[in-house]
Amino acid sequence: MDRATLSQRIESILNEITRLSNTLYAMDNTNIQRHSDSYEILSTEAALRGEVIACRLRHLIYETTTIRKAEYLTSAGVMQGISVIEKDGILEITLPCLLPKKSKKHSCEYLTDPIYYTLSKYAQTHTLPKFRHCVVCFSHIYSRELSPNRVRDYDNLELKQLLDAIATFVMEDDTGLLCDAYNTTDIGDSDCTRVSVMDKERFQGWLSDRENRLRSISDL
């Protein structure tokens, strides 16, 4: 890449950072209780700009350095705090954030690429289950310290790209004939998303464990 093109790429990223900074200032000065709609618009815009910045920086690294994509995205998964565990036949992937809204203009590349390479790295040292008939449970966990008005409809969330990345490693096919999806909302210590993949016969047990856990928390 020649110097002029590189400078143009960097300048475009700097411009996005300026726009992101302005949006964050606007968020900070918005009364979330009185103007929740405006705050939601601003926060979504900030998140999408952050996504654009992250993706542009990644592609700049791939095109101008010797760092391999797999190497960088594995590190990105660690930095984001993505975790993968498998216990009693249930694969659990935890993302330290809520899923973004569906958008025609932006993809979930900033999130799905690190998930893909985190699973790839995990598979090098662990035997991943391969599900045929399975249930995928999306647990959307919202911080109890923030307004409950933030809770969103499931059909507005970007689930498909995340499911595609996971299905590559642990499902024979994510067609509706073989894979059922279940969404649930919980309140926790911090925002995160937990994806649990299991054989269909394990789902009722998983659901009972979740309900018992919530009942125990409410009794405290």
Secondary-structure blueprint:
Layout: H1 3-28, H2 36-64, H3 69-80, E1 83-87, E2 90-95, H4 109-125, E3 134-143, H5 160-170, E4 179-188, E5 192-199, H6 203-219
Parallel strand pairs: 3-4
Antiparallel strand pairs: 1-2, 2-5, 3-5
Helix pairs in contact: 1-2, 3-4, 4-5
Give the tags:
single chain, 220 residues, alpha+beta, 60s Ribosomal Protein L30, Chain: A, 2 domains, five-stranded mixed beta sheet, 6 helices, 5 strands, flat, disordered C terminus
Can you put this structure into words, describing what you see?
With 220 residues, the protein is of the alpha+beta class. Helices cover 51% and strands 18% of the residues. It folds into 2 domains: 67 residues; 150 residues, 60s Ribosomal Protein L30, Chain: A (2-Layer Sandwich). The longest helix is centred in the N-terminal third of the chain and has 29 residues. The C terminus is likely disordered. Strands 1-2-5-3-4 form a 5-stranded mixed sheet. Helix 1 runs antiparallel to helix 2. InterPro entries: DUF6100, RusA-like_sf. GO terms for molecular function: magnesium ion binding.
